[in-house]
Each structure stands twice: as structure tokens, then as C-alpha cells.
Structure to design on (250 residues):
């Protein structure tokens, strides 16, 4: 059980690191969060699919250096773990709007790395 | 390798079954697609998070019996498998609009079952 608990904490820590990199506009930290695999994928709100480490990180670089990008606050993270794969769902608050994200992590050499992110606006209920 | 190939075909078949149930407004088929776990989750376009088998399937029942629900066509599915977890990304076309979906499946007693779905509109590029 302690390993399971530790794994979930590791996933949540990786999810926190992702949003910390986003909130602090830290490009290098964002690069560390993602798996370096060519299979990584990202669907930003309203964008189409971005695929592969270089293109995904280039999309983040554009977001993080955009002076008009509002800060992000994340909350309500919940984790489902399936072996070395974990799915985190969480809220994102950006400029007064509410979004929901699906973040998929895999365990690589003992560290949880982001392999997929989709975020989209949702109704405030 | 044949097992891996067979697994990917099984995931794609499960993803096809999901969209076939949606396209044919088949509530019973939709119920079969999902894992019966209380951990299943769904983020419909613009909705907030729906959680648990009963609530998720109730949300689908409302969609499938809605006479104004336009038909859906899905395409471009790609799979990433991580052990007994697989993530499918695919396009959805509804009433001339393009959406992108993240569908997460897990293998239960040899069958791939849907445990999470998020879909949201994207730009047409």
C-alpha cells in the first residue's frame, strides 16, 4: 500500500510541476515535465492536435513567452493509476474562465513524465 | 509482436464500438463500451466533469435520446498503449464542427473498456 500511496503522490507532484512551470512561465521546467518521447501529444484549448516532443514543447514555448498569456491556477486534481500509466483530471482557472484538463503520465526510470495533455473550457456549474 | 498488434487492434475496435454506439444512438451498446467501475469519468464538450458509471451513462442516455443531437463521424484514431492502459486520440465531426477526443481504455478480463472520455472543439487547420 505504501508504494501505491507513494506512486499517487509522485503523479500528483508531477502534475503540480506541470502547472508550476505553466504558472511561472518557466520553459526549462516545462521541458523537464514532459516525456522526451516522439509519441507525446497535446491538445491546447481550441487548437488541433500537436504531436512529438519538439512540436509540443515549441507550442508551450510560444504560450510561455506570450506577454498576453494570463496566469493559470489549477485545482481539484484526481488520479487514476493503471500500472505505469496514470490519468490526472483537474480544473484550470485562466482569466476567470474554467477549463478541465486530462493529463496522462507514464513512469519512466522511476519518474512520472507527462505524455498527453488536453484542456478545454467547461461550463461553471 | 503479434500480441502487441492484437492489443492495438483490440483498442481500436473498442474505440470504434464507442463511436458506433454514439452514431447509432444505441444506449445498450454504449453501456457495454464503458468499464462498470465507479472511477469512470467523462468531460463532454463544454460540460464539467461527470464521474461514476451511473452518472456517466445517464449523461450519455440524455445525449442519445436527444432528437436534436446531430450524428457523429469519427476518424484519425491513433493509439498509445502503456501495459493494460491505452490512450486513443481521434477526431470527431459533428454538424460540420471539428472536435478532438482523448479516450482512455483499460483491459479488464481481456476486454478493453472505456474509463475516460474528453472531447472538445478544435480549430480546423
Amino acid at each position: 500500500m505504501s508504494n501505491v500511496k507513494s506512486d499517487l503522490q509522485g503523479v500528483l507532484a508531477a502534475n503540480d510541476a506541470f502547472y508550476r512551470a505553466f504558472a511561472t512561465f518557466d520553459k526549462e521546467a516545462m521541458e523537464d515535465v514532459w516525456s522526451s518521447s516522439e509519441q507525446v501529444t497535446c491538445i491546447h484549448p481550441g487548437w488541433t492536435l500537436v504531436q512529438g516532443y519538439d512540436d509540443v514543447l515549441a507550442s508551450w514555448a510560444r504560450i510561455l513567452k506570450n506577454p498576453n498569456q494570463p496566469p493559470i491556477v489549477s485545482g481539484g486534481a484526481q488520479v487514476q493509476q493503471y500500472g505505469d500509466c496514470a490519468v490526472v483530471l483537474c480544473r484550470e482557472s485562466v482569466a476567470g474562465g474554467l477549463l478541465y484538463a486530462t493529463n496522462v503520465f507514464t513512469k519512466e526510470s522511476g519518474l512520472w513524465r507527462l505524455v498527453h495533455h488536453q484542456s478545454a473550457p467547461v461550463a461553471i456549474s
Q: What stands out?
A: Residues 76 and 90 of chain B are 5 Å apart (CA to CA). DSSP finds three helices and six strands in chain B. Chain B has a mean pLDDT of 94. The first strand of chain B starts at residue 41 and ends at 43.
